[in-house]
């Protein structure tokens, strides 16, 4: 099938590349000309495992191209996936101006019937507005438009894997033809018929994804409901961590045992500095606002959000308590990305923490394996170092703010020797308390007063 993808951010790039990988002919477009040129030159604007390899191969094999002209992109696809950003407005609502702009552009540029798929995360009823905009602005084009919702459940850092091996593919449709067309687009994924870059020796055993067909409104709601629920789980784990610290219990022991109950499940119960990134913080806010406009006060989610803000403050308080005076202390920060395996620093708890420490007058030195460039523009007051050892040199405290696995493999003996005071504040419960204390560190983590680490699943 000929597919057009509008918007080459995380979602659009992964979607377009993976749809090409499973055999479709894909044309991508981004209105940011610098980003589009970068892609045309074969350079990735983001770091995402496997993406570059797939992107370059599919371009070379002729299934993936980058259009310079939006109209050409619209006309070349039977199905058009809208993957533009929906950033938060001041009041927490999603800014839908990019979706509106693309809708009007599709309406005026199309010359034949199109299936328009909303892939961007949008509040309920966007599909209806999209349909209306296409009909009104396209009334003289002679084109017929069908609209579908197809939310993405891609995690940054495992986007390619999540696309090719999803648990579910959700499609919100209004007619059988649209359902058939979307099923056809995803059939290779449903059948597992593609060369898997994630499991080169074969991905036997991967369960067949569920193909879930709903109304457009339900499909839109599923996305916000899923992200908000996961955020809620994390805040619950963080509230438990607080209680564990007060009562002398270990949050990892508690959540691991809880997670063995299949009704609860083991994932997204890792306590730490809280959730960040461009999805959870904005989606939970947008969901709260959506409920508000529908006449419901979603207090449960408001509390989850407030706990998340509080988590950083609680950690700053711990650092303050440990250091006695923060002003003029040298604090090392390991990690800047909002989580491991990404270079994304948007709404990163690590950056929030760095900003709070700078505001208290600390001298902050930081290192991240991938996110230095993005952090530098976002937070210029930090001293960016070449590696973790340079960060530790002369530091009064070292903070682990992102759970990069390579931080666990550092030479901690060497780091201990380099620091002015071997105070280690582990905001991601990455290290084993007993082992690290045995090396001479003063060590504090989240919700684990003493005890061994038992390594929770992500
Ligand atoms: C999230 C969802 O997991 C995806 O399913 C969804 O498609 C995506 O948002 C989106 O809406 O596009 P992502 O933002 O990439 O994906 O990140 P997650 O892996 O979900 O992590 C979010 C944050 O929660 C990170 O800051 C992470 O460190 C934190 N987290 C996660 C915890 O603090 N504890 C946990 O147990 C799990």
Question: Could you give the topology of this structure?
Answer:
Blueprint: E1 2-6, H1 10-21, E2 25-29, H2 33-40, H3 51-60, E3 64-66, H4 70-76, E4 79-82, H5 97-109, E5 114-118, H6 126-137, E6 145-149, H7 159-164, E7 168-172, H8 176-191, E8 210-214, H9 216-247, H10 251-259, H11 280-293, H12 299-323, E9 330-334, H13 349-359, E10 363-367, H14 372-378, E11 383-384, H15 388-392, E12 397-400, H16 405-408, H17 412-418, E13 423-426, H18 433-438, E14 442-444
Helix pairs in contact: 1-3, 5-6, 9-11, 9-12, 11-12, 12-13
The structure holds uridine-5'-diphosphate-glucuronic acid.
Uridine-5'-diphosphate-glucuronic acid binds next to helix 9 and helix 11.
Low-confidence segments, ≥5 residues, pLDDT <50?
Answer: none
- Biggest sheet features: 6 strands, parallel
Could you give the distance between the termini? 36 Å
Integer average pLDDT: 94
Strand order of the largest sheet: 3-2-1-4-5-6
Could you characterize the architecture of this molecule?
By secondary structure, the chain is of the alpha/beta class. It folds into two domains: 2-214, Rossmann fold; 230-453, Rossmann fold, CATH 3.40.50. Helices cover 45% and strands 13% of the residues. The chain contains 18 helices and 14 strands. It has helices spanning 10-21, 33-40, 51-60, 70-76, 97-109, 126-137, 159-164, 176-191, 216-247, 251-259, 280-293, 299-323, 349-359, 372-378, 388-392, 405-408, 412-418, 433-438; strands at residues 2-6, 25-29, 64-66, 79-82, 114-118, 145-149, 168-172, 210-214, 330-334, 363-367, 383-384, 397-400, 423-426, 442-444. A six-stranded parallel beta sheet has the order 3-2-1-4-5-6, sandwiched between helices. A six-stranded parallel beta sheet has the order 11-10-9-12-13-14. Strand 7, helix 8 and strand 8 form a beta-alpha-beta unit. Helix 5 (97-109) runs parallel beside helix 6 (126-137), helix 9 (216-247) packs across helix 11 and helix 11 runs antiparallel to helix 12. The longest helix has 32 residues, at 216-247. The model has no long low-confidence stretch (mean pLDDT 94). The structure holds uridine-5'-diphosphate-glucuronic acid. Uridine-5'-diphosphate-glucuronic acid binds at residues 121, 152-156, 227, 230, 234, 268-270, 272, 274-277, 279-280, 283, 338-339.
């Amino acid at each position: 099938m000929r597919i057009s993808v509008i918007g080459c951010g995380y979602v659009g790039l992964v979607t377009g590349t993976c749809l090409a990988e499973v055999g479709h002919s894909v044309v991508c477009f981004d209105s940011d000309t610098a980003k589009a040129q970068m892609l045309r030159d074969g350079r990735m604007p983001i770091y995402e495992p496997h993406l570059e390899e797939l992107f370059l191969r599919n371009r070379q094999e002729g299934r993936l191209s980058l259009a310079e002209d939006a109209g050409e992109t619209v006309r070349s696809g039977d199905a058009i996936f809208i993957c533009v950003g929906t950033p938060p407005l001041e009041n927490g609502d999603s800014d839908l101006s990019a979706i509106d702009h693309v809708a009007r552009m599709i309406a005026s540029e199309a010359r034949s019937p199109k299936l328009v798929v909303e892939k961007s995360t949008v509040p309920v009823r966007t599909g209806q507005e999209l349909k209306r905009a296409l009909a009104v602005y396209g009334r003289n084009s002679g084109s017929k438009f069908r609209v579908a919702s197809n939310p993405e459940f891609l995690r940054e850092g495992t986007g390619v894997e999540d696309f090719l091996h999803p648990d579910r593919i959700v499609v919100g449709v209004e007619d059988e033809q649209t359902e058939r067309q979307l099923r056809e687009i995803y059939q290779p994924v449903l059948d597992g018929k593609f060369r898997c870059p994630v499991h080169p020796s074969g991905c036997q055993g991967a369960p067949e994804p569920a193909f879930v067909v709903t109304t457009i409104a339900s499909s839109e709601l599923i996305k916000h409901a899923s992200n908000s629920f996961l955020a809620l789980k994390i805040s619950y784990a963080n509230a438990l961590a607080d209680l564990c610290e007060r009562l002398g219990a270990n949050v990892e022991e508690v959540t691991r045992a809880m997670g063995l109950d299949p009704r609860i499940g083991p994932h997204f119960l890792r306590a730490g500095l809280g959730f960040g990134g461009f999805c959870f913080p904005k989606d939970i806010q947008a969901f709260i606002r959506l409920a508000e406009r529908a006449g419901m006060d979603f207090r449960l989610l408001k509390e989850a959000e407030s706990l998340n803000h509080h988590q950083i403050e609680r950690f700053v308080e711990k650092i303050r308590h440990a250091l006695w005076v923060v002003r003029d202390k040298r604090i090392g920060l390991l990690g800047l990305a909002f989580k491991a395996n990404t270079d994304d620093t948007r709404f990163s708890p690590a950056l929030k923490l760095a900003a709070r420490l700078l505001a208290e007058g600390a001298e902050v030195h930081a290192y991240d394996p991938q996110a230095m460039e993005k952090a530098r523009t976002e937070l210029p007051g930090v001293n960016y170092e070449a590696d973790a050892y340079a960060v530790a040199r002369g530091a009064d405290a070292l903070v682990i703010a992102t759970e990069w696995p390579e931080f666990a493999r550092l030479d901690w003996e060497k780091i201990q020797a380099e620091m002015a005071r071997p105070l280690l504040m582990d905001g991601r419960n990455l290290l084993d308390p007993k082992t690290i204390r045995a090396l001479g560190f003063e060590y504090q983590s989240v919700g684990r007063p003493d005890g061994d680490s038992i390594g929770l699943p992500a």
